[in-house]
Amino acid sequence: DAMVIQNPRYQVTQFGKPVTLSCSQTLNHNVMYWYQQKSSQAPKLLFHYYDKDFNNEADTPDNFQSRRPNTSFCFLDIRSPGLGDAAMYLCATSRAWTGGYTFGSGTRLTVV
Amino acid sequence: QKEVEQNSGPLSVPEGAIASLNCTYSDRVSQSFFWYRQYSGKSPELIMSIYSNGDKEDGRFTAQLNKASQYVSLLIRDSQPSDSATYLCAVPLQAGGGADGLTFGKGTHLIIQP
Fold this sequence. Notes:
The structure holds two protein chains of two kinds. Chain A has strands at 4-7, 10-13, 19-25, 31-37, 44-50, 53-56, 64-67, 73-78, 87-94, 101-103, 107-111. Chain A is mostly beta strands. In chain A, strands 2, 4, 5, 6, 9, 10 and 11 form a seven-stranded mixed β-sheet that branches. Chain A has a four-stranded antiparallel β-sheet with strand order 1-3-8-7, with no helix packed on it. Chain B is mostly beta strands. Helix content of chain B is 0%, strand content 58%. In chain B, the strands form two sheets. In chain B, strands 2, 4, 5, 9, 10 and 11 form a six-stranded mixed β-sheet that branches. Chain B has a five-stranded antiparallel β-sheet with strand order 1-3-8-7-6, with no helix packed on it.
């Protein structure tokens, strides 16, 4: 089945130690998104790639970066995780202008 | 900045009854609206989308849209314990859909009491 896959499901990292979360998709969608969701809060859009074009939300901290080496893969890099970065990180994909968004299962990040 | 408002709940409904979830949005030009269900610790799952004023039915779910009042609702008929979850209302950041992603409400926590 076509899907969005996030790895790992759970990630524990040390304070200040760089960490990378990955997302892959078999839907051939041209847009990939990264959302951050903290406990009891709405998912918050961090950035997205429309094909190869990177779009950063204005309030996304510089500590967060992203890479999209090809259509299928997208990575979220957190350069120096702080305790406040502990959250669920959700990858989503869509085909622009069609209105359908598909989410991966998420990665739960813990910072110790 | 688009805003999406939902009552966080919890909303408690007896099994078999109708659960009614409400959402208001700030941007008058929004054209599409989505309801996601999110179980604790899981990712959001799309259950309904609606683009036109009026009602849209899919099984036990009915989405209702009133663009003049900037209001969208979700009705769940014959509520089941498995419907207990947080329901997120979402609106595209770009009025015509585009690729800019979604803005979400904080969600309503629904509890179906057996």
